[in-house]
Specification:
By secondary structure, the protein is mainly β. The protein has 2 helices and 8 strands, in the order ββββββββαα.
Length: 106
């Protein structure tokens, strides 16, 4: 996947490599979209995707030293709330909420 960058800011972080990219404000069509393409203040660069961490996380694409890179942010899990829901759940294995229901707040 490529990122379209203009003036050191990511404009689009979902440009398929080898596809067609229209940039209407620059009156430019790029085909095929490739890493390293440049035009005036625009450029395409491959997104670096490091291995994800364990657990729950969200991800964004950020410029790190001018390189578009996936950044991961841990998503906290409210374990006291989950523990309270589990202990208050009915003992009935087939009629009570599932752990997925409890985790999702249902």
């Amino acid at each position: 996947m490529l990122a379209l960058i203009k003036d050191n800011a990511i404009v689009n972080d979902a440009v398929p490599e080898g596809g067609i990219l229209n940039i209407p404000e620059a009156l430019v069509t790029v085909s095929p979209a490739q890493d390293g393409w440049t035009f005036e203040d625009y450029r395409l660069a491959a997104i670096v995707t490091p291995p994800p961490p364990e657990g729950f996380y969200s991800s964004t694409v950020e410029l790190v030293d001018g390189v578009p890179t996936v950044a991961y942010t841990a998503v906290p899990i409210d374990t006291p709330q989950i523990d309270a829901r589990i202990t208050s759940a009915p003992d009935d294995l087939f009629g009570g909420p599932t752990l997925g229901d409890i985790f999702n707040g249902n």
